Amino acid sequence: MKKTARAHTNIALVKYWGKADEELIIPMNGSVSLTLDHFYTDTTVEFDPALTEDIFCLDGKQKHDPKVAKFMNLVRNLAKKETFARIDSINHVPTAAGLASSASAYAALALSATSAAGLNLTRKDLSRLARRGSGSATRSIFGGFVEWHKGTDDLTSFAEPIEEETDWEICMIAIVINGHEKKISSRHGMQQVVKTSPYYHEWVKTAEEDLKLVKQAIKNRDFSLLGEVSEASAMKMHALNMSAKPHFSYFMPESILAMQKIEELRSQNIPCYYTMDAGPNVKVICEKQNVAFIIDELSKLFAKENLLVANPGPGARLI
Question: Signal peptide position in this chain (predicted)?
Fold first, then answer.
């Protein structure tokens, strides 16, 4: 009745931005991500017949979170049980700051809760379940490069690995500009964009094209293509935000500074690209051989402790 799971964050190379179904969290477009070793969530779930409600603690502090309670009801329905649980979650990643903490959080919760409830779900079914907590969590069930098939309903929307044990020495450097919770949640931002951006139709169309190109880049080990498409996908996503009514942005001045620095390095023939999610933090996509040089260059602008290097990481597992 008590299990602990660890799941790692993932950063989308081809972004998901917008839902076709808000309740089931079915995306408007497919996506591809890289699971990272540096950022992860550990979650322990223990079912206790003495409890009259779920008790959720995040980083040692008890929190009231209706989303967690709703997710636990899904697990109870699957397990055909009514027992409430203690949920203790430790985030080794800044929460709600655009570093994919919700992805690792719900992937870890999906595995720990179902295991504690006596279920033994396939990873495909875990992926489907994790999606109900946070869309990007569907990808954190797996390691390495992962594709989320958008699907059309609960059964057909799930992730699967493209290359889980990758030997490609690819890295991401997270430039932590602001680790605080963002003012506009991803969920709210997406809703606003889908409803009001005049460019949204084109986003869906080009996202599908980007997905094919990134899968091709992974297969052929084409780093330039991978970087170019990933950077373009991120910038198109943020352009949507600025075209919404009312418009909004996750950028901070330091975000722009980081992007300009990466473009400068690229002009000096250092292959590196940037991506950003719903938050101000910039992730630099590069190859392992160039990490030390890029860190040295970024250290001229940012504190070294805010430059975090991540490699391809594993999928969710019990610990």
Answer: none
